[in-house]
Write a structure and sequence with these properties.
The protein has about 90 residues and is of the alpha+beta class. It has 3 helices and 4 strands; from the N terminus they run ββααββα. A hairpin with a 3-residue loop joins β1 and β2.
Length: about 90
């Protein structure tokens, strides 16, 4: 599975990581719906860190279609309402 962190690059992750990423994604959706900016920001940073820590960075010159695109950690709550709605980044 290929995950792109906007503005930072792409990472290759085992598909076994999908459940862990989905749990974080679902929490982000809940925090955005509740207008809980502090928790939303913490979970978004956690999502980004999991991808970076458990993923293998791809060469910057190697562009592969991404399975998941994660917004940058400076995403505003207003922007998050558009991205993290419904089922979030990862469809169940």
């Amino acid at each position: 599975m290929i995950v792109r962190i906007m503005g930072e690059g792409q990472y290759k992750l085992s598909s076994s990581m999908l459940d862990e990423l989905n749990i974080i994604d679902n929490r982000i959706v809940e925090y955005v719906a509740a207008e809980n900016e502090k928790e939303f920001t913490q979970e978004l940073i956690k999502l980004i860190n999991v991808v970076k820590e458990k993923g293998e960075p791809l060469d910057v010159y190697q562009i592969i279609e991404s399975d998941i695109i994660v917004p940058p950690e400076d995403l505003t709550m207003e922007e998050a309402r558009e991205v993290f709605c419904g089922c979030g980044l990862i469809e169940d």
